[in-house]
Amino acid sequence: MKDLLTESLTKEDATALILQAKKRKSLTWEGIAEGIAMSPVWTHSAAMGMNAFPEAKARAIIDLLDLPEEALEALTESPTKIWDQTVPTDPCIYRFYEIVGVYGPTLKALIHEKFGDGIMSAIDFDMKVEKVPHEKGDRVKVEMSGKYLQYNCW
Amino acid sequence: MKDLLTESLTKEDATALILQAKKRKSLTWEGIAEGIAMSPVWTHSAAMGMNAFPEAKARAIIDLLDLPEEALEALTESPTKIWDQTVPTDPCIYRFYEIVGVYGPTLKALIHEKFGDGIMSAIDFDMKVEKVPHEKGDRVKVEMSGKYLQYNCW
Amino acid sequence: MKDLLTESLTKEDATALILQAKKRKSLTWEGIAEGIAMSPVWTHSAAMGMNAFPEAKARAIIDLLDLPEEALEALTESPTKIWDQTVPTDPCIYRFYEIVGVYGPTLKALIHEKFGDGIMSAIDFDMKVEKVPHEKGDRVKVEMSGKYLQYNCW
Amino acid sequence: MKDLLTESLTKEDATALILQAKKRKSLTWEGIAEGIAMSPVWTHSAAMGMNAFPEAKARAIIDLLDLPEEALEALTESPTKIWDQTVPTDPCIYRFYEIVGVYGPTLKALIHEKFGDGIMSAIDFDMKVEKVPHEKGDRVKVEMSGKYLQYNCW
Amino acid sequence: MKDLLTESLTKEDATALILQAKKRKSLTWEGIAEGIAMSPVWTHSAAMGMNAFPEAKARAIIDLLDLPEEALEALTESPTKIWDQTVPTDPCIYRFYEIVGVYGPTLKALIHEKFGDGIMSAIDFDMKVEKVPHEKGDRVKVEMSGKYLQYNCW
Amino acid sequence: MKDLLTESLTKEDATALILQAKKRKSLTWEGIAEGIAMSPVWTHSAAMGMNAFPEAKARAIIDLLDLPEEALEALTESPTKIWDQTVPTDPCIYRFYEIVGVYGPTLKALIHEKFGDGIMSAIDFDMKVEKVPHEKGDRVKVEMSGKYLQYNCW
Amino acid sequence: MKDLLTESLTKEDATALILQAKKRKSLTWEGIAEGIAMSPVWTHSAAMGMNAFPEAKARAIIDLLDLPEEALEALTESPTKIWDQTVPTDPCIYRFYEIVGVYGPTLKALIHEKFGDGIMSAIDFDMKVEKVPHEKGDRVKVEMSGKYLQYNCW
Amino acid sequence: MKDLLTESLTKEDATALILQAKKRKSLTWEGIAEGIAMSPVWTHSAAMGMNAFPEAKARAIIDLLDLPEEALEALTESPTKIWDQTVPTDPCIYRFYEIVGVYGPTLKALIHEKFGDGIMSAIDFDMKVEKVPHEKGDRVKVEMSGKYLQYNCW
Amino acid sequence: MKDLLTESLTKEDATALILQAKKRKSLTWEGIAEGIAMSPVWTHSAAMGMNAFPEAKARAIIDLLDLPEEALEALTESPTKIWDQTVPTDPCIYRFYEIVGVYGPTLKALIHEKFGDGIMSAIDFDMKVEKVPHEKGDRVKVEMSGKYLQYNCW
Amino acid sequence: MKDLLTESLTKEDATALILQAKKRKSLTWEGIAEGIAMSPVWTHSAAMGMNAFPEAKARAIIDLLDLPEEALEALTESPTKIWDQTVPTDPCIYRFYEIVGVYGPTLKALIHEKFGDGIMSAIDFDMKVEKVPHEKGDRVKVEMSGKYLQYNCW
């Protein structure tokens, strides 16, 4: 009976196929993003299975990377966003966790002061990462933008 | 013997004094920041006791807010940065935690692609929060900038 | 110096004042809600300090319950929403946690099926609780409504 | 000896078979629910192995989806309801967790006010999800109904 | 303003008053239970603030123990049931936790076998503790009884 | 070298063999328990690998269920009792956890009152589950009995 | 009303009184233990409120240390044994935790080999600590003895 | 390329080989310990991979149990001591955890009283387990001995 | 009765007294350390109550800082070393935690390679912190030294 | 489709290849480090996949250990640094965790005293381990050096 269980491609499979094609074709994330006319942050995130490709973009990346047609379904389905480490251990990611710990109340206070009683959406949201040359050492610039959502009173 | 233990002002006391003066004088964080010629993010964070005031800035905020002279020591001492909630519950702060969970690996991948094997510093770091008007609803824009630090090989 | 630290009313104080007035005046939450022309769920939540009163509603509840004028500031300030128990122990609240555990993936799947790749907002949100008489035992009916938020692609 | 251990279909297998058939037949959860004359919420939940199919409903879904007869046993057995994440990370599910955190005490207070000292059952329970068109953006409406259970005094 | 916050008796105060009266009058829990015509398990639990006294029983225990009239309100209000230790450390309580860990799946399997797909209610529930003399050492007998609740299909 | 590692039957294998035979022979736990002249609770628990079969009982269940002779060793060896969920999520098991949380201090107080400073053993222990018909709905009755163990003073 | 709540001595108070008297009289735990004709381990543990004094021993320590008569009740009542740190941080205590982690399965295997399917009681239990002079450095010797308890089959 | 990864024997493999040989030869841990002239506690612990065999002892157990020569390397390498359960669930091991929780502060106090400011080493450490016949039930005697280590002042 | 509980100075009190005197006298930790002829690391740690002062050093710091004679007892008693944060949040301390996470297995492997099967003692241990000027930015140098402890075989 | 997923070498594979070659060639970490002209700490850490090899060093270790050319990519890619145990259980690693717990605040205080308001970098960082012979027992000397990073004010 177990033979009945022939699995189709999962989002993890699609990610693995993208990573292989990226190596094989010596592409960068910026290059892939440009190739499908999306931003690098969103493209990497969707390639990792943390965002869903709209159908047109799924077709674009399948074409760009010569992925199998069967990947379409996995690429377009809504992901279940799971992370295993409540506190991330990798130093590059931990520093962002630390920033939320140290500056979280400050972000909240300034959002309330500038907008009112509400939050920045993490759904209607975009982000970019840039390299800013600097004489004392280059700087990483991260820019987030999310729609302001006002708490409802009813 | 307990009488020997007359406590001086703590960083928490200094924060409380600032909050009272801010209310009494009807100031905003932006106003206070301008008054001491620093950014609003840093000013709020230092006022909350999460950053240390350089002596000149401590004197400036004491003057601006008519704080007691005794606050100087507490304002300038290096804080021990502690947050109690491993996962923050307040929705406004949680959304930033969620962004780190969802986009942490993406930030890492793009930093590696643009800079090499290293991280963005959370110490040599600055941040600003802006309100960006938008026809479909205003947006919160958060801009972080940290020095790129390359892993050492030795 | 500590004498400088005369505290103003906190949101906890405001909650305590409301609870006392509610007892003294023998009011129900439904009654209070009606008195300030808001819903019972929102009214209780704001009274507990988990939502901010708009100024007009703060004045209304001050009038209705004969609260001191000084409560206005605490009632209107944006709350920091904190809950201590990651898993709530009270059986009445735990059952809702259990429902999220059991039916969370189902809610997600049906939202995706009906709306697309997005979520129900917990900010642009309202809820009501009703008693539905039933011959085999009355039923609690809880109705939540939140704005659908579509994930951004950029 | 290990050869003795030929396993029969598990609930996970049954779920996988349902998901495949759903794709193959291009069905929606609403369609499947209608096909077996049950609600979409219950149908998805049972299909995920979080509820047990009564025998008639198991037969109905086997017929509807052309599942193998051997799935009957797995579909009808009582599930052990397990969720791995104490705090769910997927934003769509987390928002419901957040609602329980923010409004849990309110739900409790209003249930006590309307019914007495008791709880809403999560066992004698039903739920539905609806799409409510709205000019400022469609809304997700979730309606839960559970039997009121009064605490026993003895 | 803080003077406005004169607190009334809490459930913790009521518990303290009961414990003092119990000592002063040299009563046992069995004696108090008999005095208010309730079971010892329920009586102790309600005295600890983990269950609510119906008004008649609150009056009975006030009379029996000469509690102040003001305790009535605290005794009758619905408790928020909170326990601090996820895993209890006291050996006498831990052994019951251990029994749930070891025999939980067995209780579940036998309830399913005898009743169907459902659970034992912890709300419509009663319990008693007895001493059973035994030649090899007396035994503690604990008897729980809860209403069987069948999962709803809808 | 790895070929040297031919494994013998584990307790998990023995459990799987019992479950298969139970299905194949359409037996209940009560039926199996009767067949080996033990109680249903103990029989299920031992079959799950949470208790060790005395040799005679291992032989009895091997005979009753036509298990392979090689299962004898696994059935009789002392189990390492492990449960993965500190707080069980399955509602049927959680309710017992909840009872320990709510009534743990009560069980402790009454044991102290009836017996002295000691505990109920979870080792020299037995339990049974019964169905008690009731007009307002059948009830699950669980009866535990454990030897009283007095704390030693030395 | 709060004035009604005059508290009697708690176990923590009794511990504090013992510690003060111990200092004032320059006694050691060995000395106190000898003075009440009990072992040092038990005596310290009971003095810390982790064991209950039998009435005669409570009287003996009251006499020995000139404690107030009111301490009798607190000294003799059954303690609720609580420890706050799941993993103890103090190095002297952590090493014992480490020993349980490293040698726990070994203790289990040897108890099973020597006794059968059972455990060592932590209730019918005693312990002593000795100093064993040794040329390469003195050694701490800890001797535990607990009654063997056989698992029940029923 | 994966074929390059032919693994050698791990410590887990060595443990499995020892357990099989022990069964095949019907040996006890005491018997094996005697056969290699070491104590039963150390022998079991090293066999479980929680201690490293000195080369002579590794050869001895290889000879005694007819293990393959290739096991030598795994048996002699320093183990990484890992335990998965912060709080052990098996009752036989938990009781020792409980003893550390209840008597940890007592062990600390008596070590300080007898030796000074230091700890008992868990590295320069030995332990034995004995069966002590007793009329009221045999007792498990555990004897630990560790070198006293004095805190350094510098 | 509560009046009997006049507390003596605790280690926390002694720490507070030292911190006040340090400010009043404008001393540095290096200065205090020099004044009592101990190292700065040890001196700060003992002043924080994480190490015990030998009597001579306690007298030295009392003299140096004009502490009350009553502090002697608190300064010399063995501390219970407790830290509240399993993972420290302060960035300056977290980096050391991160180093243990990243390089822990490396430290272990090199200790085994250089010394054998054992560990570095954290008890017979000393540490120093130095500032090393460097053209690309000064460096913090931390030097730890602990006695090698070989695992015992017995 | 699954056949498309032929995986290339991972960092774990590269680690396994290094460990095998190290055994086969009877090398030490010091020997390997010398062979590629890097330090032993860095070499072990990179070999474990916790640091990235610069290309030249990757080629050097491939040559030294006769690794397959395909390992180059895995050796040079930026690792995601993950550790599973929040509190490490292996005694050799735990002692370093304990040092951070006990001396973390001391390290912080002395860094602030010597440098100002900042931290020691764990990225621009190096470490060495040495064996220091000592008459009372050899000592492990660990020397860490990290760039001082000053907090930014902006």
| Residue runs with pLDDT of under 50 for 5 or more positions of chain A | none
Q: For this structure, what is the CATH homologous superfamily of the largest domain in chain A?
A: lambda repressor-like DNA-binding domains
Shape of chain A: globular
Q: Number of folding domains of chain A?
A: 2
Q: Largest inter-chain interface?
A: E-F, 66 and 66 residues
> Which percent range describes the beta-strand content of chain A?
15-25%
Q: Estimate the helix proportion of chain A, in percent.
A: 40-55%
Helix-strand string of chain A: HHHHHHEE
| Computed structural class of chain A | alpha+beta
Counting DSSP H or I runs of 4 or more residues, the number of helices of chain A is 6
Task: Write a structural description.
Ten copies of one chain form a homodecamer. Chain A is α+β, with helices and mostly antiparallel strands and 154 residues long. Helix content of chain A is 45%, strand content 18%. Chain A is built from six helices and two strands. In chain A, strand 1 and strand 2 (139-150) form a beta hairpin. In chain A, helix 2 crosses helix 3 (40-47). Chain A is globular, with a radius of gyration of 19 Å. The mean pLDDT of chain A is 95.
